[in-house]
Design brief:
Layout lengths: L1 E8 L16 E2 L2 E2 H10 L5 E6 L3 H8 L4 E4 L6 H6 L2 H4 L4 E7 L7 H14 L3 E7 L8 E4 L6 E5 L13 E10 H7 L17 H8 L7 E6 L11 H14 L5
Parallel strand pairs: 1-4, 1-6, 4-5, 7-11
Antiparallel strand pairs: 2-3, 6-10, 7-10, 8-9
């Protein structure tokens, strides 16, 4: 069975205070998106697609022919970004990884574990989650109180006070059954605080529309949240570099 990967790299990254696309800022001396592509190239992935937007020509110049580029001309949300690959992937049988281009610390073994879980359970999708002390700013994982199944992901701006107390968060990294993914994407709406098409809404859409065919939406809880630490500011970039060198045993 084939596997595909979509890297989301279209964001402006305005809080980085740089003209350089966020995903080209280096962690451990290598641009973030380059570290992710390195890991994916070491896996049996049939096609790696990178969704570009703001100053995408710089990302293209850096990655060259290693990947297939798809442009998101308008920043309408993560579901809209993934939908830009439809002409390449629709009706293809297999598993599709979706990763954010600013998570260079994720281990290849974690990506492999995510892919293996989707295949082994033949589920409609698997989301990578983490349990953290301060979940402020992250989407919250909503589980069925009876069986623990993931039934929704709520972005913080749309969460109730009770939901904001949940400490299990969405990392933005998924693995889907490819055909289920592209059947569900058009049903996602932008009826939310940001007026964006959230990929996180796909959990609810798959369940409510029957697209999942009764299959569960699974979750893998990450043991080391530093693998997916957010990199949105120069300070967080410094923190990610410290974490990278600490992992390498180099305490710079």
């Amino acid at each position: 069975m084939e596997a595909f990967a979509i890297l989301l790299a279209a964001g402006k990254g305005t809080r980085m205070k740089s003209e350089l696309p966020k995903v080209l800022h280096p962690v451990g001396g290598i641009p973030m998106v380059g570290r992710l592509v390195d890991k994916l190239e070491s896996m049996p992935i049939s096609r790696i697609m990178v969704v570009i937007g703001h100053r995408g020509e710089l990302v293209q110049a850096y990655l060259g022919t290693r990947v297939t580029f798809v442009e998101q001309t308008k920043q309408l949300g993560t579901a809209h970004a993934v939908l830009q690959t439809e002409h390449l992937l629709r009706n293809r049988c297999g598993s599709t990884l979706v990763l954010t281009g600013d998570t260079p610390l994720i281990r290849q073994s974690t990506i492999e574990r995510l892919l293996a879980a989707q295949r082994a359970n033949s589920c409609s999708g698997v989301v990578l989650t983490a349990v953290i002390h301060d979940p402020t700013g992250y989407g919250r994982i909503i589980r069925d109180p009876l069986n623990g199944e993931v039934i929704d992901i709520i972005e913080e701006k749309d969460a109730t006070p009770e939901q904001k107390r949940i400490n299990e968060i969405n990392t933005g990294i998924f693995c889907f059954d490819n055909e289920s993914l592209f059947r569900a994407l058009p049903a996602i709406s932008n009826n939310n605080a940001q007026h964006e098409f959230y990929l996180t809404d796909i959990v609810k859409v798959m369940s409510q529309t029957g697209i999942s065919g009764g299959l569960r939406f699974e979750a893998i809880v990450l043991e080391d949240p530093t693998e997916v630490m957010g990199i949105n500011t120069p300070e967080q970039l410094e923190e990610a570099n410290r974490a990278f060198y600490a992992r390498m045993g180099i305490f710079a």
